[in-house]
Amino acid sequence: xxxxxxxxxxxxxxxxxxxxxxxxxxxxxxxxxxxxxxxxxxxxxxxxxxxxxxxxxxxxxxxxxxxxxxxxxxxxxxxxxxxxxxxxxxxxxxxxxxxxxxxxxxxxxxxxxxxxxxxxxxxxxxxxxxxxxxxxxxxxxxxxxxxxxxxxxxx
Length: 155
Fold this sequence. Notes:
By secondary structure, this protein is mostly helical. Helix content is 75%, strand content 0%. The protein contains nine helices and no strands. Helix 4 packs parallel to helix 6, helix 5 (67-79) runs parallel beside helix 7 (103-117) and helix 6 (84-97) packs antiparallel against helix 7. It is globular, with a radius of gyration of 16 Å.
């Protein structure tokens, strides 16, 4: 669809990534959602294109209430190489997301926390009991992802 076309164009012309970042602030929910979806796809192909926008993506994730947009931004945020205060804010946001009614939001938050914990022994210690509890979550998706995340942390 049109999102894939935008992604292909942005991968050829990385200056367009800034336009997609700007579109996250559009008042029309559908525009912000499509932009977040395109950014998620760009990140899969060329994650470094989003690195300069980590702070803006973090701010937008904190401010976004639309669930589908938040899912995409949570996925993106979990893959960004954040440091210092930005990483601390993103980590707090992910811990908060663990209480979401949305099982998908909880899965994406667990993934982000696991990614952040890869090189952070303190965070790893903090999330291990959370992952243990997630193994008994009513959601099959959460239980399945948690098994993968536990393997990811062990490696």
